[in-house]
Specification:
two-stranded antiparallel ribbon, single chain, mainly alpha, 4 strands, 82% helix, 364 residues
């Protein structure tokens, strides 16, 4: 309960500080969501993976990232969209989601043999630095040409006059501290409870650990959605996934003397699922530049199915073969049909009503 309260309060402070900071320095809120907020809320994954790498649990470090990325897209975006349909900015569709997909494919190619060497990890860190510099430079350029509504200008001017910069930085610092500490308390408590009820270590690592370290993203995206900062809500997830792949795997792989390792199941099963989930974002985001409640429900259903499958594999459940048949012969075809249907419907609307083909920031 204490961990949950810290997460909620920390997320509110983080979104508030990030929003004010974005308006003050002239950086679009999407860029703040993709960098400051996304990197901050991924700090638990970084801490857990580094600790795992230093203590020789190299597979746990990699599994934590894979599980967290799948959870971020399917559960967090799904739940956020079910509560409030999310509008997706053109920058996310054209740039940041493709970057997330390419980064996922790159890491999969590096770890295809079950090994992520220190050289591979160093390359990921270099890409992280370049990606972060590129985002901030792009955001500053866009700020000079972006025109804002008079109401937004009035709000910005009020913030600049009445709120010193250190207020925004203080909100960010307090929010991040509460998020990180709250996540650690919640994860430790959940693991202890699981052990009391004699749940296996494998299930704990693949479910509780991955979900627990992603709780800051859950609360931050939900709070951002409710506060109307939907760019931060979506950008937080996309940025967190890219950060997990580049920074968490990169840094934890560097601190480990032998790099990171992944089991055959992780490489052949969970890595491809992570890539498929990333690819799923592109067509659904593209349709109407939004994520509807129905699509959000699809994401949540897929995560529930993945979790059930994961538990079945880990515990060697007798119903696993039936679940595999259900997935391959019903769930996958239905998902393909849903995505195809939304694409066809969107293309039909674009042809009938060309004037409605604008994304949320086409006018800016």
């Amino acid at each position: 309960m204490l961990g949950l309260l810290l997460l909620i309060g920390g997320a509110d402070g983080l979104v508030k500080g990030a929003t004010r900071l974005a308006e003050r320095v002239g950086v679009p809120s999407l860029v703040i969501g993709l960098t400051v907020v996304a990197f901050g809320t991924s700090a638990p994954e970084l801490a857990v993976s580094i600790r795992a790498a230093l203590t020789g649990q190299r597979e746990m470090a990699m599994a934590n990232v894979v599980g967290s990325n799948i959870f971020n897209v399917l559960f967090i975006l799904g739940l956020s969209a079910v509560i409030i349909p999310l509008t997706i900015s053109r920058q996310l569709i054209r740039q940041d989601v493709p970057i997330m997909i390419l980064t996922t494919a790159l890491v999969l190619s590096m770890a295809i043999d079950g090994q992520l060497s220190r050289w591979n990890s160093a390359a990921l860190v270099v890409l992280l630095i370049g990606y972060t510099v590129f985002l901030f430079a792009q955001g500053k350029r866009a700020a000079h040409v972006k025109t804002t509504a008079s109401s937004s200008e009035a709000v910005t001017e009020t913030i600049k006059k009445n709120a010193p910069a250190w207020h925004s930085l203080l909100w960010l610092a307090i929010g991040l501290s509460c998020l990180i500490f709250g996540a650690n308390v919640l994860v430790d408590s959940a693991v202890n409870i699981a052990r009391v009820f004699e749940i296996s270590e494998a299930v704990i690592g693949l479910t509780i650990l991955a979900i627990g370290t992603s709780l800051p993203e859950v609360v931050t995206s939900l709070v951002a959605s409710l506060r109307g900062q939907r760019d931060i809500a979506v950008g937080n997830v996309v940025g967190s996934n890219t950060f997990n792949l580049l920074a968490v795997l990169g840094i934890s792989g560097l601190v480990s003397e032998q790099g990171l390792t992944g089991s055959l199941q992780l490489v052949q099963q969970d890595f491809p699922i992570m890539l498929a989930v990333a690819l799923l974002c592109l067509p659904l985001f593209f349709t109407g530049a939004s994520l509807s409640r129905i699509e959000g429900g699809l994401f949540l259903s897929l995560y529930l199915l993945y979790s059930t499958f994961l538990i079945g594999v880990t515990t060697h459940a007798h119903w696993l073969s039936s679940l595999k048949l259900f997935i391959f012969y019903l769930c996958i075809p239905l998902t393909v049909l849903t995505v195809t249907g939304t694409l066809v419907n969107d293309l039909r609307k674009r042809r009938q009503w060309p004037g409605t083909n604008k994304g949320p920031d086409d006018d800016t």
